[in-house]
Amino acid sequence: MFAKVVAVSLLTLAGTQAFAAECKVTVDSTDQMAFSTKAIEIDKSCKTFTVELTHSGSLPKNVMGHNWVLSKEADMQPIATDGLSAGIDKAYLKEGDTRVIAHTKVIGAKESDSVTFDVAKLAAGEKYGFFCSFPGHISMMKGTVTLK
C-alpha cells in the first residue's frame, strides 16, 4: 500500500513538473550580428523570467559586443538612439532610461551575462521587443517578446 502511494505521489509530482512553464531562455549572439532567436514567448504563469545571453563569436566586446535589451516595441529605436553617447561601460543605454524594462551588460567573445525581470512589468496586449543597443546593431539584432 505504501509503495502505491509513493508511486502515485511521484507520478503526480513528475506530471506537475512536466507542465510547469519554462521561465528562462538562452539567447546566443554572434560575430555576424545575429541573435539565435527572433521571438521569445513568456508564459503568464511565470513570476520572473530570465534571459541568459551568450556570445559564441571570437571578437572582443569593443569590436563586436552585444547586449540584450527589453522594451516596448515603439521604444526600441529611440532607446538605441538615445544610448549611443552613453558608451560601452553603460551598455549604450542612457542612464535612468525608464523605457528599458530589463537589459544585460555588453559582452564579447565567449562571455555571458543574464538578467531576470518581473513578468508583472509586462502588460497583456502590449507589443514588446528585444534588441542589441551596441551602435548600429539594432537593424539586424532584434526580435519580439510575447506574453502568452
Main attributes of the structure:
148 residues; alpha/beta; three-stranded mixed β-sheet; 3 helices; 28% strand; disordered N terminus
DSSP E strands, number: 8
What portion of the residues fall into strands of 2 or more residues? 25-35%
Overall residue-averaged pLDDT value:
90
Oligomer designation = single chain
Count of helical segments? 3
Give a quick account of the main beta sheet: strands, pairing sense, barrel closure: 5 strands, mixed
Detail the poorly predicted runs.
2-18
What's the overall geometry?
globular
CA gyration radius, whole angstroms: 18 Å
Order of SSEs? HEEEHEHEEEE
What distance lies between the first and last C-alpha atoms, to the nearest angstrom? 42 Å
Describe the strand arrangement of the main beta sheet, using strand numbers: 2-8-7-4-5
Structural class: alpha/beta
Q: Helical residue percent?
A: 10-25%
